[in-house]
Amino acid sequence: MGNCWAKQIKAESPADAAFSSGDLKHGTRKANVLSSSSSRIISASSLSRTEGEILSSSNLKSFSFNDLRTATRNFRPDSVLGEGGFGSVFKGWIDENTLAAAKPGTGMVIAVKKLNQEGFQGHREWLAEINFLGQLLHPNLVKLIGYCLEDEQRLLVLILHACVPEVLCLLVALGAAKGLAFLHSDKGKAEVIYRDFKTSNVLLDSKYNAKLSDFGLAKDGPTGDKSHVSTRVMGTYGYAAPEYLATGHLTSRSDVFSFGVVLLEMLTGRRAIDKNRPAGQHYLVEWAKPLLASKRSTMNILDPKLEGQYSPSGARKTALLALQCLSMEAKQRPTMDQVVTALEQFQDAKDIGRSPKTKQKLSSYRGSTKMPHGK
After folding, report:
1. Which of 29, 39, 109, 348 has the fewest beta carbons under 10 Å from its own?
2. Which InterPro entries match (predicted)?
3. Which CATH class is domain 41-159?
4. How far apart are CA 185 and CA 337, in angstroms?
5. Does the 162-362 domain belong in CATH 1.10.510.10?
6. Chain segment 332-355, per-residue pLDDT in tens
């Protein structure tokens, strides 16, 4: 189930497209968006526009390439956290106060995302991450420290967080929901649609607070009297909302559907797509949705690792919430604010708990950037 830096990024190398549009990631694999002839071109006008947009959008630190080369020990192979079609992510260290490169094992641990020098789509996603994370501040969003734009080099510098261990997934669902609810509100100046919400994009800080990461596909929400944003279909197959796949119409309720898929992954311990499952169980939503309507069948598909985290009534309530999020009709899905309220009520009613056994397991995951897949 939940992936982290290494597994997520290595899985996102270019592969066969799931749809003829070539814009959707199948599972966690990402197809090339532009043709080979056009993907290598970043025009001078685009570069100057990029510089202006970054300078006016945030208070992010502009790192030199040499700074980051020193921080990552010259991008050594043993510093690689993951790699894929967009490039590689390296582990590094910087001084917490000056943000200058620090010796390994000292200062603040960072993740340096280094874009391949070819590919305009990757450049656009790099710029999107800067423009969104440079302006949006929230406890449940990953913290972008700065960037590097030097000649052909494109890098991002983020605080390094651990991936979500399967034992903790249900306990961080509320934090992830709060992050999405914030994006959908106008508190960040304008509504933002995340567009690629999935388990592998939820990271944890040292106190197990959820942090949404990877804003490369995020989009500004509709404005004025518009009900949706029309866009090319991009995201991850298995998580994308059906109406978005069919029409390219994107709304905040598209993210709600994706949250429902993640909630289902957390409940069952299964991946959104797993071709190694028996026939009829490859696609989690198709297999599990009919079973969520019955209390007995719901209990039968729960992940045994959740023992101690949920009361029977809590498991049932969470399953019904997931079912609402997965409605085929976008308007019938709850808002993320409503999802947050529901999850908070579950916690207040002690439907979601944390057993001593779970606490012991959590300690073993502290600081980890790797995790096994779910059942």
Report:
1. 348
2. Kinase-like_dom_sf, Plant_Ser_Thr_Prot_Kinase, Prot_kinase_dom, Protein_kinase_ATP_BS, Ser/Thr_kinase_AS
3. alpha beta
4. 9
5. yes
6. 999 999 999 999 888 776 666 555
